[in-house]
Amino acid sequence: MAVVIDYDKCTNCKLCYDRCPEGLFGLDEQGKVYVKYQHECWLCGACQMDCPFGAIQVRYEENVKPIFLKRDDKE
Amino acid sequence: MAYQIERLKTDVVVIGGGLAGSLASIRVKEDGADVIVLEKANTNRSGNAGSGLDHMFSYVPPVHEKVGYTKDFMKSDMYQIALMGLGLGNKKIVDHFVDVSYERVISLEKYGVNFRFEDSHLAEGFRLVPQFHSVPTSFHFEGRDLMVKLTEGMKKAGVNIVNHAQVVKIIKNKEGKASGAIAVSDREEKIYVVEAKTVILTTAGGAARVGDKMNFENPYFEHPSSTDSGWGHTLAMNAGADVINMEFMIKNGGLAFPQFTFTAGAPGGTWWPAARVVDDEGNVIVERVTDYSIDEPDYLKKNVEMLDKFAIQKVTIGKLLNEGKQLYVDLKEATDEEVEYIKWSMHNEGKCWLYLRNLEYNNIDLRDVKIPYRLFRHVTIGAGAAGVLVNERTETTVENLYVAGDLMGGAGTVGAPTAVVYGIEAGLQAAKKAKETTYSNDEFFVESQINEVKVTVEKLRGNKGGEKWQSVLERVHSIVETFGIYPLTDGKINSALELIRKLKEEVNIYAPDDHELSRAFEVLSIIQTAEAIFTAADLRKENLGPFKRYKDNDTRIYGERVPAENAVLPEATEYGLYIGEDGTIHHHIHKTNQDGGEIPYKEQTLNAPYIRWE
Predict the structure, then answer these.
(1) Which of A44, A46, A71 sits opposite B368 (nearest CB)?
(2) Residue A18: which CATH number?
């Protein structure tokens, strides 16, 4: 999963919903923001940059090729 | 399905609220005209500059003059790069760019973007970074929140911003002049109809989504940035404006594009000069580059040497990757100071910011990792001089329609500096024209155009038996990936066109919600862009020149660089495509580089015979 919302920090201000260049966030039946179209994310990072509460992380698959290889894995 | 129509009226309507569009709109207000910006998402993070920029080139008089790098030198340098070097560009666009680039780029300081640093040893406190295309140096600046700041600037200037409004049609009046835009909301069932005296189109210029995973940005998600859907090309074509050099939107993918490291690639770019390129066995393929400073007296000589060296290194990397070797960017030898500088730069440059954050999650230092290159064997996209035919006043072949930014055709290089310089130009020109123009729409004529959009929207939303947009996109990709591989041949081009036209007839998408409606429109645009690309390739036929021939890893650009005083722009033919009143593709022949920017209008339409390249 690329975009992860930490609901302990999220205040449902909907800034991410408004700003995502790809319109990937949706509102559920209770009006709560969630990542509706996870696979259309191209990792621009805007939601994480602008979240006033630090509630969003956009994560690459951890230490997986082809993003980067830890040197000690190879040497 | 009950789509509501919201009618708006203004002097100038701007399509796209990215770097070019925001600056255009502010300029319109400054010149005393009213303006509405229609932005498909949100101007705060819109377009290719949306998540930040750390560098942007211009002529920089206080620094360049001292080392003997003149404006004329820069112009002739720019004539030689990419498609300009083939004669597929407009000299006047480059000349005007160089002449006004400094004042316009540095005007971003007005919005609180920082270009000056206390630790700088250069004139004016600038930081400049060596660059390996078009110009020797770029400003290095703090541009992460550039679009946030420009959005504040737009609001202060009184620009009317309409976010979440994806323009699907440019309105034309009875005289065939552009006179507004129709947009669809991705948030509610609403269609915006904006009538205007003049129209500025500033959507992005890429078309990476025409092919599968042709985008270096995102190797494992299904979706490159939607700015790369060829959206602006089809909006312009459908309004009857010429797009040129579309065949060059697909190019050979033989070069090495390291994903995520592309914008910070080595050699060159953000890692420079701290990175080496190494292989799996630890052999150093490219050593660290020797640093030199822009204010050294023999700077020009050093820069040319570096450029030549860089070209050879690039070819070497390409060859090794082609042979199946795995190569890595390696920062092992970087000093603390260098790593800090690189991190400052990455913090400001687009997706590099996210790369840094991910290194942090994993508690990894830049020197602890090796960053693998990836080879693109398939086609990839080079927008370059492909785009809407414009002159240096950003006028197009359709009256009252102006185009600026990445979408400009014949501009030589596109990117942030072009967006800034010509965004402002488009605002200036469109405001001036709007003052001489009156509203000219015939209500009945406008209604029929609104209705056309409404019918398409309702069909897509109500078509429950239809395909998902993703599966239609897959069909486009399989055509392009099969027949778009270099070198192109008549056979491949004909097969591609036949299949694309069949797909166009059969296409039957279902959009279950507003978001997917916007995706469905994108897919329709992607199909049309693919058709335009292969049609242009078909037109060029036997006179394809370097377009058709596999040039060994593209050494031409650097390898045949001639001294500035000898640089001439060769004569070449450009095929302009547009959609005629009958709904089919028509074409013109242009030689914009020769007559210097005069736009050939419809009466000069030629039924293009195939002209030999040489």
Answers:
(1) A71
(2) 3.30.70.20
Taking CB atoms and an 8 Å cutoff, what residues of chain A touch B359?
A: 68
CB-CB neighbors (< 8 A) of A70 in chain B: 364, 368-369
Low-confidence ranges of chain A (pLDDT < 70): 1, 61-75
pLDDT of B254 reads 53
Whether B409 contacts B245, CB under 8 Å? yes
Site of tokens 């250069």: B122
Q: Judge whether residue B503 has pLDDT over 50.
A: yes
Helix (H) / strand (E) element for B401: namely strand B401-403
Our count of domains for chain A comes to 1
**Residue type (1 letter), B369:** V
For chain B, the structural domain boundaries read: 276-372
Q: Which of B193, B156, B165 is nearest to B38 (CA)?
A: B165
Confidence at residue B69, expressed as pLDDT on a 0 to 100 scale: 84
> Is A20 within 8 Å of B218 when comparing Cβ atoms?
no
Cβ contacts (< 8 Å) between A57 and chain B: which residues?
Answer: 357, 361
Q: What pLDDT, on a 0 to 100 scale, did the predictor assign at position B77?
A: 76
Residue B609's SS3 state is coil
Segment B105-110 mean pLDDT: 98
DSSP letter (8 states) at residue B391 = -
The C-alpha of A7 sits at a distance from chain B's nearest C-alpha, in angstroms, of 19
Q: Which long-range contacts (CB under 8 A, 24 or more apart) does B595-601 make?
A: B596/B90, B596/B91, B596/B92, B597/B90, B597/B91, B597/B92, B597/B93, B597/B391, B597/B392, B598/B391, B599/B389, B599/B390, B599/B391, B599/B395, B599/B396, B599/B397, B600/B397, B601/B397
**Is residue A66 less than 8 Å (CB to CB) from chain B?**
yes
Q: Residue B493: name the closest of B295, B254, B250 by CA.
A: B250
What per-residue confidence (pLDDT) applies to B489? 79
Asked if the Cβ–Cβ distance from A67 to B358 is below 8 Å, we say yes
Q: What is the pLDDT of residues B190-232, one digit of tens each?
A: 999 999 999 999 998 888 888 875 544 444 444 567 778 889 9
Q: Is A6 on the interface with B (CB under 8 A)?
A: no
Q: Which of B42, B220, B361 sits opposite A19 (nearest CB)?
A: B42
Query: For residue range B383-422, what is the model confidence (pLDDT) as tens digits?
Result: 567 899 998 999 999 999 999 999 998 887 778 999 999 9
Distance from CA of B78 to the nearest CA of A (A): 30
Compute the average pLDDT of residues B540-560: 40
What average pLDDT does chain B have? Answer: 82
The whole-number pLDDT of residue B163 equals 98
CB contact under 8 A, A69 and B328: yes
Q: Supply the ipTM of this predicted assembly.
A: 0.91
Nearest to B13 by CA among B140, B199, B270, B174: B199
Q: Which domain holds residue A9?
A: 3-74
CB pairs under 8 A between A and B: 120
Residue from the list A18, A49, A62 with its beta carbon closest to the beta carbon of B51: A49
Cα separation values, B75 from A71, B59, B129, Å: 44, 10, 19
Query: Which tens digit of pLDDT belongs to each residue from B240-268?
Result: 999 988 888 876 655 544 444 444 444 45
Q: Which residue has the tokens 């508690």?
A: B363
- Tokens (6 digits) for B186: 């991705």
